[in-house]
Amino acid sequence: MLLWIAIIIAVLWLLGLLANIGGGLIHILLVVAVVVLIFHFVQGRTRA
User: Fold this and answer.
1) What is the distance between the alpha carbons of residues 9 and 33, in angstroms, rounded to a whole number?
2) Do the beta carbons of residue 12 and residue 32 sit within 8 Å?
3) Which residue, 1, 10, 28, 30, has fewest beta-carbon neighbours within 10 Å?
4) How many structural domains does the chain have?
C-alpha cells in the first residue's frame, strides 16, 4: 500500500515538474515520496 502511494506521489511530482506548476509543492511531493519509500522498505525488513 505504501509503495503505491509513493509511486503515485512520485508520478505527480514528475508531472508537476514537467508542466512547471506548483513551485515548492513539487519538491515537497518528492520528499514525501522518498520518505514513504524508505518507511516501506524499513517496515518490510522488520516483518521478514
Assistant:
1) 6
2) no
3) 1
4) 1
